[in-house]
Amino acid sequence: MSENTLPRPMVWLISYLSTWLPSSFKKGKLPYMFFFVNLIIVLLLVFAFISPYPYATPMFLSFAAFLVLLLVMVHHGLSLEWGVHIATATGALVLLYAIWFSGGSFSPRMTWFMVLPLTPFYVLGRKEGMTWLFIAVALQSMVAALTGLEVWPPLPLGSEHAFSSWVTATAATGVLVIVPFLYARLYQKALEQGMRDQQALELKKRELEHALLMREHFVATVSHELRTPMNAILGFNALLLSRLEGHPGALKVLNHTQQSADHLMTVINDVLDYSQLEAGELVIQPERFELRQTVKHAFELFWPRVKSMDIDYRVALDEDLPTWVNTDRHRLMQVLVNLIGNALKFTHQGSVMLRVQWQNPGVLFSVQDTGIGITPERQRHIFKRFSQAEDDTQARYGGNGLGLAISQKLAQLLGGEMGFESEPGVGSRFWLRLPLVGEKPLPPTKTTRKLEVQTVQSSWRFLVADDHPVNRLLVKQVLHSAWPQCTVLEAANGQVALDVLRTQAVDLVLMDMVMPVMDGIDATRLIRLDPTVTVQRVPVLGLTANVNPLDLERFKFAGLNAVMLKPFEPAELCQRVESLLWAKGDGP
Fold first, then answer.
1. H helix or E strand, kind and range, residue 493
2. Between the CA atoms of 188, 190, 196 and 197, what dihedral angle is there, to the nearest 10 degrees?
C-alpha cells in the first residue's frame, strides 16, 4: 500500500501532528505510536461519558491518565518496547474488567480483543504481535468458558446500552482500519528513506571508484615525472663510471652517487609499491646474491648523513652468516634502508646499530637505537599506513608514514615477519626475520662497466623519439659510446618521428611513450600500418618511465619489439638494441 492510498485528511493530520511532536517522538515508528496512543486516549474519554455502566467513568479516565503517563515516561527515556508491553497488558486488564460488568462473551467490548495485538505487531514486530495475539485468543477463550459456566453477572438489557454498543463496534472497526493505514504510511517512509540511502550509497560508491581511478592516475603521473629525471641522473652516472675505470678516486665518488641515486629510486618507488601491495600486484623476484655485501651497501648509504651527527653508528655481522642467499635483494635492501633511516631520524645522541645474526635456519636483521622511543598507546598503530608515532612527528621529523607499513608487507611477501620493542626515552629495536639458507655462489662474472657490443664498428642509424632533451642526450651518448660511428636522429614527439621515418632510412627506433602532439603508442601503431615496407618493419624499442601495467600492455600491443623502463642501465640498453638488430637480420 503506497502513501497515495491513504485518505488525504489522515495524511494531512499525520503531517500536522509531526510538526509539534516532541523531539523524542519524531524518530522511526514513534510518531505513529504517539498518534495511535492519543487516538485510544480520545476514545477512552468518549466512553467515559457515554457508557451507561457505573464503573465506566473512573476506569476509562484512569486508563487514559495512565497512557498519558506512559507517553511522558517514554519521552524521558523509557524504552519503546517496555512502553508498548506495559500499555497492552494494562489494556487487557481494563478490558477484562469492562467485560465482567457487560455480559462476558456477549459483551460488545469483546470486539476490542481484535485490536489488542495491533500495537505490538506494527510497532515492535511480528514476534511480539503474534505473542499478544495468542494472549488475546486465550483471554477470549477464558471469557467464553466462564460465560458458559455462568460465572459472569447477568447482562443488563435496556435501550440505554444500544448507543454505547454501537460506538464500541464502530470504534473498534475504525481502529482496525486506521492502524494498517498508519503502518502503510510508516512503511512508505521507510521505503523512501531506504531509497535515499541507496542513492547516497551509490553516489558514494561512484565517488570512491573515481577517487581510486584518480589515485592510480596520480601515482602513475608522479612515478613518471620522478623517474624521468632519475633516468638522466643514473644514466649519465653509469656513463661516467664506464669511462673512469682507471681513476679510483673518481670511481669512489661516482659509486657514492650511484648508491644515493639507487636509494632515491627506492624512496620514489615506495608510493608505487604501496599501491601495488594494496592491489596485490607486487611480485617478489628472488635472486642469488652476497648477503654481507648487500647489508654493507645498505649500511654505507647513510655514511654522509652520519658524519654530521654525533652518534655511534655501527654494523655487526655474525661470522656464521651464509655468504650467498636467495631472496629479492632489492626488497631486502628497501626494508633495511627504511629501518636504518627511521632509526637515524629519531636518534639525536647515543648509537644506532645494524646487527645481522644467523639463527640456523634463518637470518635475523635488527636495527637498535637509543632514540626517542614509542609510547605504548602509539605502538599498535606503528605499522599502519600514513601513521607515525605522534601527531606532530611528521612536522618535526619529516617522512610520509609509509615506510614501516611497506616494510611489514614486504617482510610477509619475503616469507618472514617483522616486529619491534620500544620504550619512550630509551630507544627502539626493529627486527626482521627471514627464512634464508646458504646457497651455492654464482659463477664469477666480468664487472667492467664499459659498453661492449659485437657490432662496435657498424654505422647504425638510430632515431630517438622523446620529448625531454636531456633524455635524448643521454640515449644519444649511450649509443655513441657503444657505436662511435653511428648516426642518431632526434624527434620531440611521435608525429616528428613518423615524418623522419618517411624521409630517412633508420635501423632502429627508440620510442618514448608519453609525448605531446602524438604519443609513442599512436606513433608505433601508425608505423606498423605504414604502406612503406621499410617503415613498417623497422624495429621499435619502447623506453618509458610509465609503469602503469595497462599502459604498458597498450604500448606493447601497438607493435613494439621490446620495452625497457626508465631509468635503464646503459649496458643493458645496448645489449637490447643489438639483439633487436640481430633479429632484424642486420647483425653479424
1. none
2. -160
Which superfamily, per CATH, for 284-434?
Histidine kinase-like ATPase, C-terminal domain (3.30.565.10)
Of 354, 240, 249, nearest to 301 by C-alpha is: 354
Gap between the Cα atoms of 27 and 75, Å rounded: 12
CATH number for the domain running over 461-584: 3.40.50.2300
- Selection from 504, 503, 499 nearest residue 488 by Cα: 504
Question: What does each C-alpha distance from 49 to 46, 55, 258 come to in angstroms?
Answer: 6, 11, 101
Gap between the Cα atoms of 146 and 152, Å rounded: 7
Higher-confidence residue of 131 and 229: namely 131
Domain boundaries of the chain, sorted by first residue: 3-203, 284-434, 461-584
Q: What is the pLDDT of residues 22-74, one digit of tens each?
A: 666 666 566 666 777 777 788 778 877 777 666 777 877 887 888 888 878 87
When pLDDT is cut at 50, 70 and 90, the band that residue 537 belongs to is very high
For residues 329 and 436, give the distance between their C-alpha atoms in angstroms, rounded to a whole number.
12
Q: Which residues pair with 419 in a beta bridge?
A: 431
- Check if the beta carbon of residue 488 is closer than 8 Å to that of residue 474: no
C-alpha 173/C-alpha 90 separation (Å) is 21
pLDDT at residue 216 above 60?
A: yes
